[in-house]
Write a structure and sequence with these properties.
With 412 residues, this protein is mostly helical. It is built from eleven helices and no strands. Helices cover 80% and strands 0% of the residues.
């Protein structure tokens, strides 16, 4: 189990981020204390950032562009806090899910073809997680670089922080400025870690479950090919009966695997369904707000790079999220076709043959309702969700654009 994790960059990185937040398995009491300390630090960083953001929007109320910028920051804080609360409430079921994943998915007991399927999964996971992490950390770096560039050539009393503090004492003077600057940047980076860690893990799990459905299809196809290769030798009733029993034994193993994957997806849905709903709503809003700052608002040039990375981060995250859920649906539905394509029609209609056909039905019927993730039961997440979110964001963007034009008309 540990060997499989260390060989996979995506698994190791996702686990490290979850440990940094404090919501991960602990092997002993000492490790549990580290997890608790990390969770306390996470809540403290989010609380500090939330207080600064709400105070900032209170004093900036009336300036439309500033309110849009601060609203983006508040939305990021709210979605992170929401995910932490949901996962903490379901942490027992979540830890059971992680243990099951480590034991049954992240191991090396696969044949050559199955390892190729997993290698393809690991490659996709690594690409997604690297791109998402790069864009997120680049966005966080923008919060640090923007005030640094703005403060070049300014007096000490005129220096600005990444976020306005709105306090009476001179925040631009040393050592207040340096202390506040470090605190704000530490909060920004930790919020960024919290923001991507849950999405990384959910995408990772979705893609690995999808690979398990592909492995199951491969085993069914391979079982059918082995049995078809022996079809020329099935000339007597005795050999046909022996062949049917062997086929039934192997098919039962595949059916049990299929049922365990379906049950796993149900637990996954129970844990993450509220997070999925919040994530889709959040992405619709944040895509619109970031697009407004990037294309319509009078944004400082030093912030544009950060906004571009943020915009790319949102699109990548949305595609990664919907692609992994769509693959789960498609591959779980394909199990029924792989089962039905077997040579069951040529089996004798004796007692073993009837049991064999019942097992085939047990495998086919659940596949008529593919495994999926839903937004609290309101909608099913697939690649169609990607276009739906973009369409919704464009509608919000049009409203913001009209509001901006009205503001300009009032000022003129």
């Amino acid at each position: 189990m540990r060997l499989a994790q260390t060989e996979d960059i995506s698994i190791g990185w996702a686990c490290l981020l979850m440990k940094s937040v404090g919501l991960w398995l602990a092997a002993d009491d000492a490790e549990q204390r580290r997890r608790s300390a990390a969770l306390i630090y996470t809540i403290s960083a989010i609380s500090i950032a939330t207080c600064i953001a709400f105070r900032d929007i209170y004093f900036s109320w009336g300036n439309f562009n500033d309110c849009v910028y601060i609203s983006c920051n508040i939305l990021y804080l709210m979605i992170v806090l929401f995910k932490i609360c949901v996962l903490y409430i379901n942490k027992i079921e979540f830890f059971h899910l992680v243990r099951y994943t480590q034991k049954n998915f992240w191991h090396s007991n696969y044949d050559f073809q199955e390892k190729l399927i997993l290698a393809d999964c690991k490659r996709i996971c690594s690409v997604f997680i690297i791109v998402l992490s790069f864009c997120t950390q680049g966005t966080c770096a923008g919060y640090m670089v923007t005030p640094i560039l703005t403060n070049i050539g300014k007096n000490e009393s005129d220096r600005i922080l990444p976020f306005n503090m709105w306090v009476d004492f001179p925040t631009g003077n040393s050592p207040y400025f340096e202390i506040l600057f470090i605190i704000q940047i530490l909060c920004v980076y930790h919020v960024g870690v919290c923001y991507i860690c849950f999405d990384n893990f959910l995408c990772l799990i979705n893609l690995h479950v999808t690979s398990q459905f592909r492995i199951l299809q491969y085993r069914l196809d391979n079982l059918n090919k082995i049995m078809e290769a022996q079809a020329d030798n099935l000339v007597t009733e005795e050999t046909m009966s022996t062949y049917t029993k062997k086929y039934l034994t192997r098919l039962r193993s595949c059916v049990q695997h299929h049922q365990s994957l379906i049950e796993y997806c149900k637990h996954l849905e129970n844990i993450f369904t509220m997070i999925v709903l919040g994530q889709v709503l959040f992405l619709s809003l944040i895509l619109c707000l970031v697009g407004y700052q990037l294309f319509l608002a009078d944004t400082p040039p030093s912030r544009n790079v950060s906004l571009c990375l943020n915009f790319a981060d949102i699109l990548c995250q949305l595609f990664m999220f919907t692609y992994s859920c769509d693959g789960l649906m498609r591959q779980s539905a394909n199990v029924g076709r792989a089962t039905f394509s077997g040579p069951w029609a040529a089996m004798p209609m004796n007692k073993v043959g009837k049991v064999l056909r019942k097992n085939i039905l047990i495998a086919i019927l659940p596949s008529s309702r593919p495994c999926c993730l839903t937004g609290s039961g309101f909608f099913t997440v697939s690649l169609e969700t990607y276009t739906g979110v973009l369409s919704t964001a464009m509608s919000y963007f049009t409203l913001l654009r009209q509001k901006s034009l009205d503001e300009e008309g009032n000022y003129s």
